[in-house]
Amino acid sequence: MRITRLPLIAGILTAMVASGASAQSVNLTGIYKCTQMCRGDLPAHVTQNGTELNILTEAGVASRAWPDWFYPSNRLWIDAFNLGAVYSPDGLLIQFDNGTIWHRDIPPALPPVRRR
After folding, report:
1. Exposed/middle/buried for residue 65 (C-beta within 10 Å: 0-12, 13-18, 19+)
2. Does residue 115 form part of some domain?
3. Residue span of the structural domain in which 31 resides
């Protein structure tokens, strides 16, 4: 009986490790504009390196962040603020637990190049 449980246990452990490793599937690197409950007028910056993030808020305050391993895969934990946030599947929106909302600032597309 013990031998038949071993593959089941191995499968469960593999699934747990795989889900943790793929916790953050979208790259959040970019410039964001604060649209609600802002503490400043500067653009916010997010730089992602693997699962770790460096954040510069709209008030110019820097912090580190990483996936919140205890919640769904779209949740972050921001260390300096002792604050969580969720991000949209496409990475265009970050909503913090305190009500602050950032939208990714995507520059307008360049006009097509006309060839003669």
Report:
1. buried
2. no
3. 2-104
